[in-house]
Amino acid sequence: MTVYAVKNVASSAFLVTDGRRAMIVDTGVAGRAPAMLKQIADAGLRPADVGLILLTHHHADHSGSALELREATGAPIAIHRDDADQLRRGGRVDLQPTSLMPRLMKVMLAKAEIPAIEPDIVLGDEEDLSGHGGIGRSFVTPGHTSGSVCVLLADNTILAGDALSGGMLRARMARKPMFATDLDAAARSMRAIANHAPTTVYVGHGGNLTAPSVAQLKTC
Ligand SMILES: [Zn+2]
Ligand SMILES: [Zn+2]
Fold first, then answer.
1. Phi, psi dihedrals of residue 128, rounded to the nearest 5°
2. 43 CA distance to ligand 2 centroid (A)?
3. What does the domain layout of the chain look like in residue ranges?
4. Which CATH architecture has domain 2-219?
5. Each residue of 126-140: pLDDT tens digit?
6. What is the Å distance from ligand 2's center to 61 Cα?
7. How far lies 186's CA from each of 5, 36, 112, 189, 215, in Å?
8. Model confidence pLDDT, tens digit, residues 51-104
9. What's the gap in Å between 56 CA and the centre of ligand 2?
10. How far does the centroid of ligand 2 lie from the alpha carbon of residue 74, in Å?
């Protein structure tokens, strides 16, 4: 299993592949489809090899290029049911910062608009993604948004979206999410991720996170 990070200005998108099939996890802000398509080609794959575009949550820095990538690959877009309505509506959402730095970042992030997207697949709390053309399993980790999900791969790698964040100064140290609609739920989700004892955790901002820093979240 290989995970490629496609770095965007503010966030990362990911291409997961077992060499035959591929899955896109998050898409970056609008205009980032060419970077992902280049990564698909660099990995020796064709756009048609992508079986699923999974959005870890609805935020514009993750959903921004989803429509273009659906067009280019023909793959369906999946999102958890609790984030699906906001994705359908599109537009801006209020971000609730959890500390000072995100408060400053909010000024920048709040400008980005979620494109209005009708998802092709609405996910439940736990799903075997291979049944939807993807790879691995998804599990819901609410708190950052109510329908945030993580992806767990067979090698115990987790793609966590924004359910965790890298540190501002130490990008590989696991931190609480920068924004949360529900802090208690976010803490429970952090513990749930840590309890998987993942080998590597990829996140939307910073990372990838060190295993020991993720293990410490068990006690948060
Ligand atoms: Zn987010
Ligand atoms: Zn984000």
1. -85, 110
2. 24
3. 2-219
4. 4-Layer Sandwich (3.60)
5. 999 999 999 999 999
6. 5
7. 24, 29, 23, 5, 16
8. 999 999 999 999 999 999 999 999 999 999 999 999 999 999 888 888 887 887
9. 9
10. 24
